[in-house]
Amino acid sequence: MKWILFFVAAFAQGLGSSDFSYDYYRLPTSLRPQKYHLSILTHLDNPEDLRFEGTVKIIIEVLENTKNITLHSKSLTIEESKTTLRQISGEKSENCVNSTAVNVDQDYYILHTCRELIASNIYELSLVFSAQLGSGLNGYYRSSYMCPQENKLRWISATQFEPIYARMAFPCFDEPALKASFVVTLGYHKNYTGLSNMPVKETKPHDHLPDYIWCEFEESLVMSTYLVAYSVNDFSHITSSLKDGPVFRTWARPNAIPQCRFAATFGPKVLNFYEELFQIKFPLTKIDQIAVPDFETHAMENWGLVIYKENILLHSYKNLDLSERQTANSIAHELAHQWFGNLVTMKWWTDLWLNEGFATFVGTLGVDHVYPKWHYKDMMHLTNILLLFQYDSLESSHPISQNITHAHTIKDNFDYIAYNKGSAVLRMMHAFLGEESFTYGLKTYLNLYAYKNAESDNLWESLTQASHKFGVLPGNYDVKTIMDSWILNTGFPVVNITRDYASRTANLSQERFVLSTNQSDLKSKSCWWVPLSYTTQADQDFNNTSPKVWLECDESGKSAPKTIKDLPGPDEWVIFNNQFSTLCIINYDTQNWNLLTKTLTTGSLKSFHIMNRAHLINDVLYLSWIGEQDYETAFGLVDYLQREIEYLPWKAADEGLDRIKDFINHTPYVGKFKSFIRKLTTPIYEKLNTTISWNSNPDKIMLLAITIKWACYCGIEDCIEKSLLMYRRWRSYPFGDEFNPVPKTLREIIYSTAIEHGNEEDWEFMWSRYQKSSEEAIQLRYLKALGFSQDELLLQRYLELIFDLEKPFSVDHFSDAFHALVSTQMGFELARKFILNNVDLIYKHLQRFNANAWAYGLFEPLSMLILSQDEFNSFKEFYYQLFYNSFADEMMEKLQLKLHFIERSSYQISEAISKFI
Question: C-alpha angle 672/674/678, rounded to 5°?
Answer without folding.
Answer: 115
